[in-house]
């Protein structure tokens, strides 16, 4: 789960990381009030969307002006003007895709006098099973580009969970960033606070880009991006409250209500499968026969009829779906339950596209019979191969 920059800054601030003062706002009036409260003389008006590259991004609407999604303002009036322009407009960045994202909230922040911009991030390194730090003097820009062009400018190391973060980790970061004296001490403290925040909140990624040195000699986190481990969210109700549903796929939100493992994809064939392995195999075989899946959907081992109905509704509500493949191997899951769920769903939402159903396993005959008796226009299939070929053919025939 991802959160906005201003929320991420509040989280790391709790653990002692240095961030600027700022206020999240939803209207130009609030922007003006926030600017007065902060006092200036320099403010930054920052679009809050779940995507990076905002500074260099461009708004689709001409009325939003030529400047990007992060703007320096030199007066309260300018803060208000920028807020007026940016709120409601669609920002396109390298990370949003062409469609862009609508900006519904802004962060009004104290402007900093920047001397240097660095890069610092943390993530769970799956190879070592540890939390790793990635540090570079090349901040404020695309780190992938730095990794590609000048990999020697990036330092990576991981922290042994048995000892936790140690003073030598801080010294390594300071050294990599050429910081000495008071700034090196600040770097040590920062590394400690970020590690504490990362572990306490079960993060999977934390990125500070840029981490800056101000002309006053202070280290500061000028941007912050956090992803949390969704599997650990149950023990962080405070984090769960930071969720911004407008940033997420509506179908994925609906699926999470029913505890369905659902991920929207770019293709045309909607899939309903039980078990992650079978779901992956189903996506592969659809591709093998020349079409693309519209989603990954694992209804789980012991899904109820209600859950199956919900899953089917989510798939049919997607206008890009040109055909549906139900592929169930009944183990704990019973084929008759699946059949009833599918039929209940079709009765409420209708069926505009071809539907291929492949059932195998527990209560398979009962399941098939239920579908036959329903009078629905279902294309039955005997095995996975047959099912994939049939749905690809049906979708292609539609054109
Ligand atoms: P993004 O990474 O999405 O473009 P950032 O928060 O990194 O957004 O902002 C882009 C750039 O804007 C930063 O690299 C920095 O140069 C400048 N900037 C951001 N916040 C401030 C601030 N509070 N004071 C001064 N400059 C800022
Ligand atoms: Mg940034």
Automatic annotation (TrEMBL):
Residues 9-241 form the ATP-grasp domain. GO terms for cellular component: cytosol; succinate-CoA ligase complex. Binds 1 Mg(2+) ion per subunit. Substrate binds at residues 274, 331-333. One of its GO terms (biological process) is tricarboxylic acid cycle. It catalyses: GTP + succinate + CoA = succinyl-CoA + GDP + phosphate; (S)-malate + ATP + CoA = (S)-malyl-CoA + ADP + phosphate; succinate + ATP + CoA = succinyl-CoA + ADP + phosphate. Keywords: ATP-binding, Ligase, Magnesium, Metal-binding, Nucleotide-binding, Tricarboxylic acid cycle. Its EC number is 6.2.1.5. Its cofactor is Mg(2+). InterPro entries: ATP-grasp, ATP-grasp_succ-CoA_synth-type, ATP_grasp_subdomain_1, Succ-CoA_synthase_bsu_CS, SUCC_ACL_C, Succ_CoA_ligase-like_bsu, Succinyl-CoA_synth-like. One of its GO terms (molecular function) is malate-CoA ligase activity. ATP binds at residues 46, 53-55, 109, 112, 117. It holds the Pfam family ATP-grasp_2. Pathway: One-carbon metabolism; formaldehyde assimilation via serine pathway; Carbohydrate metabolism; tricarboxylic acid cycle; succinate from succinyl-CoA (ligase route): step 1/1. Succinyl-CoA synthetase functions in the citric acid cycle (TCA), coupling the hydrolysis of succinyl-CoA to the synthesis of either ATP or GTP and thus represents the only step of substrate-level phosphorylation in the TCA. The beta subunit provides nucleotide specificity of the enzyme and binds the substrate succinate, while the binding sites for coenzyme A and phosphate are found in the alpha subunit. Heterotetramer of two alpha and two beta subunits. Belongs to the succinate/malate CoA ligase beta subunit family. This is Succinate--CoA ligase [ADP-forming] subunit beta. It comes from Camelimonas lactis. The gene is sucC.
